Amino acid sequence: SLVGSEMCIRDRINIREVKCDEKKLIDDIVTIHLNTFTGFFLTFMGRGFLNQMYKSYCDYEEAGLFVAEEDGKAIGFLAYSSNFSGLYKFMIKTRLIQFGWYSIGAFLRRPSAFLHIISAFLKPGEAKREEEYVELSSIGVDPNIKSKGIGSLLIDSLKRKVDFTKFAYINLETDAVDNEGAIHFYEKNGFVRERMFETDEGRKMYEYRFIGEK
Asked: Are 131 and 109 in contact (CB under 8 A)?
């Protein structure tokens, strides 16, 4: 049965945190990102940019990167941070030259991307809130094996990792339009819609929160 096969696959999955020296694994995660988020802005920025970004999640002490592995092969990932503004400052401080280089490439391919790049780096400064929270920044599963519960296992690992006596909730943002699959997935995993907002580019987004037990 479908449920039985899903349970069987979930039994074979190992989820762990990625270490910053696992360059091949980070590259495999970038490949999953590129295959999962086709047409998205960060995908347009290219493999090199994404590599630096996901390495930063591993290097920064208030962030992390989970990988889901089957027989030692990466099949899914989740990136998170408990200090999004600090993470971006860390990226700029430690990898400005690399990000700048890959941004130039993106700018040459599409000059209009420049404003998007600038707003992306300014955004965390705007996201100040009174309470401490964890941002679920990115989650992706190999498109060949979706709907097998891997994404839910990754989210479960993050829920176990977060100390809800210290952090008020897990936060995420997702598209509000033509995105029923992701919306259903997050709601199935206990996330509650907090608000709808519009980006500077006119993109309608939902903000979701998971409030854990204190």
From this structure: no
Of 194, 158, 151, 214, give the one whose Cα is nearest residue 10.
151
Q: What is the pLDDT of residues 45-55, one digit of tens each?
A: 889 999 999 99
How far is it, in rounded angstroms, from Cα 109 to Cα 135? 30
How far is Cα of residue 160 from the mean position of the Cα atoms in its chain?
17
Q: Where are the alpha helices (DSSP H) in 137-179?
A: 150-161
Structure tokens at 157: 């690992």
Q: Which of the 8 DSSP states describes residue 61?
A: T
Residue positions counted in the chain: 214
pTM over 0.70? The answer is: yes
The residue assigned the tokens 């993109």 is 203
Q: Is the dihedral of CA 193, 201, 177, 6 positive or negative?
A: negative
Q: What is the pLDDT of residues 16-53, one digit of tens each?
A: 999 999 999 999 999 999 999 988 878 888 899 999 99
Distance between first and last Cα of the chain: 37
- Would you say the C-alpha torsion 183, 163, 36, 189 has a positive or negative sign? negative
Q: Which two tokens stand for residue 98?
A: 């690399």
Q: How far apart are CA 18 and CA 15, in angstroms?
A: 9
User: 73 - beta bridge partners?
Assistant: 70
